[in-house]
Amino acid sequence: MANNNDQTASFMVRFSQKIYEDGQGDAQVQWRGKISHVQGGDSENFSEFSDAIQFIQSKLSELTKQATVDKTPEEQEGILTRSFDIWKKLSTTGAKMAIETIKDPRKGVAQLQEQISQVGEDIGQRLEIDEWRGAKKADYNDLKDTLQQVTSQLASLHDKVDKLSKNKK
Amino acid sequence: MSTLSDRLLQLEEKLTNASLQIRTLGSFGAVVDGDTVTSKAWGRDKTLQLFQFLITARSRSSLHREKIIDRLWEDAEKDEGDRNFKVALHGINKALEPNRPPRTDPKYINRQGITYQLNQEEMWIDAQAIEDYIAIANEARGTDHTTAISAYRSALECHNGLYLPNRIYEDWSSEERERLQVLILSAYISLAELMLDQQPLETVRLAQKAISIDSTWEDAYQLQMKAYLAQGNRPAAIKSYQQCIKVLDKEFGLDPLPETQKIYDSII
C-alpha cells in the first residue's frame, strides 16, 4: 500500500505584481505567476490562473495513476474519471464552497464529506476537517473575509487579463 | 542604539564567534568549533533531517514535539513516532556535542517541556545571516549607501545555491526555499541598482546572476539594458531587450512592461 507521502501533492505558487502606466497614463496592474510541484520538482510560469489549475490537475492525475497502477485498466479509468470529476468540482466551486463552509461550518463540512465520500475509498482518505468544528467564530470570520478578498481580487484580475488579451488582439 | 554599520559589524563577527556554523544553501554543512560534522557523525538520515527541520522552523518560537513527529514521521504510530524522534534528537546532540558530560543540557537545542527550539545565540546559519544582512541593507539604502552595499554583498556571498537542495522534494522545506529565493533575487536587483551609476559592469553581472536564478525577472533585464547603455554598449543593450521579449513571450505569453519598452526606445 502506498504511504501518505505517495498520496500527497504539494504546490508552491509565487505571484509577482507589476504596476505600470499604460499609453493613456492610467495605472495598470499585471500579475505573473510561477507554480511549482514540490514532490516532482518541476515548475511552470503562468499569466492566466487557469494554466496553474491545469498544471495542478496534470500532477494530481499522475498521482492517481501511480496510486492505481496495480488496478485493471477499467478500474483505473473509473477511478481517474471520478478523480477528474471531484477535481473539476473543487476547482470551479472550491472557493465558493469554502466561504459557505465558513458561514455554516456544520453544513459545509457535511457537504464536503459527502462529495469526498462519492469518490470512494479507492482514491483517497477522508479529509480530517472535523477539527474545524472546534475553531473560534472569529477565526472563521477572519478566514471568510480573507477568502472574499481573494475571490474579489481574482475576479478583478481576470477582468484585467481579459481586457489586456482583447487589447492585444 | 547601535548604528546600521555597527549592526553589520556585529553580524559579521557572529560568523567568526559562533561555535556552530551551519551552511544550508547550495549544500548542507555544519562546523562545530572548527571541525566539520561528518556524515558518519550524523548517522541516520532522519537525524540530519530533524536538525534541518529545526533550522527551517527556526523563526517559530517553539515547536511542539507532536507537530515535528507529524511532519517527519507521518506514517508512524504514536509510540513509534515518539521513539524515532527521541533517537534522532539524541543523534543530533551526539553529532554536535560528542563530548558533552552526562546530565548536562544540550548547548544547541533548547527543550521546554515538550517543545523544542534551536539556540540561535550559539550558532550562525547562512540563511538567517542572509535575512539579517538584507534587513540592514534595506534600512541603510536611503541614508547610508556604503553600509547598504556592504550588507547586500555579504548577503549575496552567503548564497551558494538552493536552500537544502537535498530536500527539494520535502514540502516542509519548500516555503523557506521560496522565501529565500525571492529575498536573494530582490537583493541582486537592489545592489545592481545601487551600482548602476558607479560600476555599470557590476550591475550587468548582478543582473545576470538574477536572470540565472529566474529568467523571467524583468527588473534584471531593465537594469542590464541601462547598464549596457551607460557603458555605451548599445548592441548588448538591444540583445538584453530581445532576450527579455523572448523569455516573457515563451513563459507568460506577455510583452515586456512599458517601462522596459521605454528603456529600449531610449537605446534606438
Cα distance, first to last residue of chain A?
Answer: 51 Å
Radius of gyration of chain B: 22 Å
Principal-axis shape of chain B equals elongated
Summing up helix and strand content along with how strands pair, one would put the structural category of chain A as: alpha+beta
Enter the CATH topology name of the domain at 19-124 in chain B: Arc Repressor Mutant, subunit A
Instruction: Give the number of helices of chain B.
Output: 12
What average pLDDT do the residues of chain B reach? 95
**Helical residue percent band of chain A:** 55-70%
Q: Give the CATH H-level superfamily of the domain at 19-124 in chain B.
A: Winged helix-like DNA-binding domain superfamily/Winged helix DNA-binding domain
Portion of residues in beta strands of chain A equals 15-25%
Question: What share of residues of chain B is helical?
Answer: 55-70%
**Uncertain stretches of 5 or more adjacent residues of chain A:** 119-129
Number of helices of chain A: 4
CATH architecture of the domain at 19-124 in chain B: Orthogonal Bundle
Extended strand count of chain B: 7
Walkthrough of the structure:
The complex is a heterodimer of chains A (169) and B (268). Chain A has 169 residues and is α+β, with helices and mostly antiparallel strands. Chain A has one domain (4-9, 49-168). Helices cover 57% and strands 15% of the residues of chain A. Chain A is built from four helices and three strands, in the order E-E-E-H-H-H-H. In chain A, strands 1-2-3 form a three-stranded antiparallel beta sheet, with helices on one face. Chain B has 268 residues and is of the alpha+beta class. Among the domains of chain B are: 19-124, Winged helix-like DNA-binding domain superfamily/Winged helix DNA-binding domain (Arc Repressor Mutant, subunit A); 197-268, Tetratricopeptide repeat domain (Serine Threonine Protein Phosphatase 5, Tetratricopeptide repeat). Helices cover 62% and strands 9% of the residues of chain B. In chain B, strand 2 (29-32) and strand 3 form a beta hairpin. The longest helix of chain B is centred in the C-terminal third of the chain and has 25 residues, at 171-195. The mean pLDDT of chain B is 95. Chains A and B meet through strand 1 and strand 2 of A and helix 8 of B.
